[in-house]
């Protein structure tokens, strides 16, 4: 009995030492995250509930109410949602289709792979320069369509402006998403796919019944990554059009950038809090869907 109690105590002490060692190794990272992320975010929440940085009177949700009634905020939110709803599914679906195509035995596979990966090596400023050359009123695209008798379009000042940015977003991000899907496809157990072939399962059923099950964690990660990148498209739009672009391209980041310049910290903090809450809700929903869809594979 004493020997058994001694073994239990020794095991408990070893586990305690491991937990303490793990906590010590994690402490610098946790302290850094606390200082540079968690504490500033709580300060942003505080800023969103005061009238101004000098008087610092609490107004609670008045800043949020004023923000929701602001027409510029409404337009920026609507444009950002429309862009994300279109661009994110396209970025996920097209990159998956390309990865599946490159998984098959097709001619010139290495050239296709290089073509989709090359945008990753191009700086944002160079990408914007390419798009300015292509979609300028006197640019290459207008020259091409005028050959067929159509009139030229001022692309960045028309209803087609968001389509132009969606194409830019896809061209810039498809390659990285494709690499992630190709890595996930290579990790699917070969014996399961071979068994499916022996059982006479067709390619579409094999894709949706087997491959998509194993791809669900990567699908979640690529969706979240594409969603985050869709909110960061402000860089390209800003370089293409400046502070106040055509209405369809006025994004949330434009709104936040402009109110920052006007030193309206309360509305800026309120917009940041709303944006964070929206992102957390969307990502949590994606996690719940992925957990239900891919649970049997993980088990």
Describe the structure.
With 299 residues, the chain is mainly alpha-helical. It has 2 domains: 47 residues; 231 residues, MetI-like fold (Orthogonal Bundle), CATH 1.10.3720.10. Helix content is 77%, strand content 0%. Helix 1 packs antiparallel against helix 12, helix 3 packs across helix 7 and helix 7 crosses helix 9. The longest helix is centred in the N-terminal third of the chain and has 46 residues. It is flat, with a radius of gyration of 25 Å.
> Could you give the order of the helices and strands?
HHHHHHHHHHHH
Can you identify the CATH class of the largest domain?
Mainly Alpha
CATH superfamily of the largest domain: MetI-like
Q: Label the CATH architecture of the largest domain.
A: Orthogonal Bundle
Query: What is the CATH topology classification name of the largest domain?
Result: MetI-like fold
How does the major sheet shape up?
A: none
Topology:
Blueprint: H1 2-47, H2 62-68, H3 71-103, H4 109-117, H5 124-135, H6 140-147, H7 161-186, H8 190-198, H9 203-231, H10 234-241, H11 252-261, H12 265-298
Short description:
Helix content is 77%, strand content 0%. The chain has 299 residues and is mainly alpha-helical.
What keyword list fits this structure?
2 domains, MetI-like fold, 299 residues, 77% helix, mainly alpha
């Amino acid at each position: 009995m004493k020997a058994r109690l001694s073994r239990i105590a020794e095991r408990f002490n070893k586990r305690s030492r491991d937990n303490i060692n793990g906590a010590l190794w994690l402490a610098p990272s946790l302290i850094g995250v606390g200082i540079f992320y968690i504490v500033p975010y709580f300060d942003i929440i505080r800023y969103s509930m005061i009238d101004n940085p000098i008087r610092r009177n609490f107004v609670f949700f008045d800043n949020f109410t004023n923000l929701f009634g602001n027409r510029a905020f409404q337009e920026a939110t609507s444009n950002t949602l429309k862009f994300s709803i279109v661009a994110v599914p396209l970025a996920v679906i097209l990159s998956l289709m390309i990865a599946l195509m490159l998984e098959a035995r097709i001619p010139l596979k290495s050239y296709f792979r290089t073509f989709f990966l090359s945008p990753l090596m191009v700086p944002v400023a160079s990408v914007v320069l390419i798009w300015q050359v292509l979609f300028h009123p006197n640019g290459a695209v207008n020259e091409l369509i005028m050959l067929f008798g159509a009139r030229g379009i001022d692309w960045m000042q028309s209803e087609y402006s968001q389509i132009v940015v969606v194409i830019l977003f896809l061209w810039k991000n498809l390659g990285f998403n494709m690499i992630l899907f190709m890595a996930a496809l290579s990790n699917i157990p070969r014996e399961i796919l071979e068994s499916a072939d022996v059982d006479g399962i067709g390619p579409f059923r094999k894709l949706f019944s087997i491959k998509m099950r194993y791809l669900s964690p990567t699908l979640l990660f690529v969706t979240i990554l594409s969603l985050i990148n869709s909110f960061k498209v402000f860089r390209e739009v800003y370089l293409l059009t400046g502070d106040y672009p055509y209405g369809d391209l006025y994004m949330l980041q434009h709104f936040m950038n402009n109110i920052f310049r006007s030193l309206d910290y309360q509305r800026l903090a309120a917009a940041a809090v709303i944006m964070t809450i929206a992102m957390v809700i969307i990502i949590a929903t994606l996690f719940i869907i992925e957990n239900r869809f891919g649970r049997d594979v993980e088990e």
